[in-house]
Structures are given as C-alpha cells and as structure tokens.
Amino acid sequence: MSLVIGIVFPLTIQAQTIDKSLELPVKDSIITFEKVVNVDSTITKDQLFNAAMAWASAETTKVIKLSNPVTNQVGGWGTARIYTGTFSNTIVDVLYLFVIKAQNGRYQITLSDFTRTVSDGREFSLELKNYYRVDKAYIGLRNGSPQYDSKKEKTFFRYLNQHAVKTLVSFENFIEKYLRK
C-alpha cells in the first residue's frame, strides 16, 4: 500500500505543476519586463551609462541601436533562441527591444516588443492583441486564424519568461561587478 502512495504522490505534484497558468507582465497590451534597481546614491548616471554600454557591447546577442550619453539611454535589439518542443526540439528565434535608462543612483532596464520568427522566416509580434487567454493557455492568431497548441504555447511562453528574467538578473549582476572595479 505504501508503495502505491509513494508512486501516486509524485505524479500528482507533477500534474499540478504543469497545469499552472503563466502570467506574463503586460504594459499597453505588450509583454514588457521592467526592472528598476537602486544602487549606491554616489554612483552617477554617467557611470551607470558606461556600465550599460559595456554590458550591451559584451553580449553577443545584443545589437546597440541607441547610445545617447546626454539622455543616458542605451537601447537596441536582443535575440533569444527558445526551444518549444520537448520531443521535436523545435527552435524559435525571438527578437526583443532592450532599453536601459541611467539616473544618479539607479537605473531601469526594459525588455519589450518581443517578435518570434516562424519556420518560414515570417516574423510574428507577441503583442497580446495577437494572443488571448483561453483555459489557461495562449492561443496564437496567425493569418487571422487561431492556432491552438496549449502545451507548446505554454512551454514557449514559460521559456520566454525564463529567458527574460535571466537577462534582467545577468544585467544586474554585470552592473554590480562593473561598478566594483
């Protein structure tokens, strides 16, 4: 009897984990990850701007399009390669906008305007007007018709969320190390 309980219990936990819905941060119908970090108040916006430039330059998946030392903003495009299928190893390339704003004693990093490239090379915006929630899964609208694959879509958005969070954390860690030099 205890053997049966030991086997059933882990399966129940795994099923509950898979069924949880994923809430993505949204701003004006666009998936947007933002983080404001306060640093030592003696750190100037110029120091933070230089640190942001160093991070964007060091990352091979980033292309700097905006570098304005007057407004202390750095921005550009980043890419992420996301594996959407557990068995098929489907790879989806995602392009996103990053903007870093430096101020004395703090900075803000924003990741937004996510676009996924489908297998034939077309780009598909991940704005929420193109996706809507149904039964804890996202439905994609492609060429005006819904495409429903609950498991793949949830897996994709879960990995997208993980990538964005890791990017924010890696930026914060980079800035911290850069400022200690």
Put simply, the count of helices is 3
Oligomer: single chain
| Structural class designation | alpha+beta
Q: Which bin fits the share of residues in helices?
A: 25-40%
Order of helices and strands: HEEEHEEEEEEEEH
The biggest beta sheet reads:
6 strands, antiparallel
- CATH class wording: Alpha Beta
Fraction in beta strands:
35-45%
Number of strands: 11
Report on the structure:
- The chain is elongated.
- It has helices at residues 2-19, 45-58, 150-180, and strands at 26-27, 30-31, 33-38, 62-68, 73-83, 91-103, 106-117, 123-125, 131-134, 137-142, 145-147.
- The N and C termini lie far apart (61 Å).
- It has 3 helices and 11 strands; from the N terminus they run H-E-E-E-H-E-E-E-E-E-E-E-E-H.
- Residues 1-20, 132-139 and 144-148 have low confidence and may be disordered.
- Strands 3, 4, 5, 6, 7 and 8 form a 6-stranded antiparallel β-sheet that branches. It has a 3-stranded antiparallel β-sheet with strand order 9-10-11.
- The chain has a single domain, classed as 2-Layer Sandwich (Alpha-D-Glucose-1,6-Bisphosphate, Chain A, domain 4).
- With 181 residues, it is an alpha+beta fold.
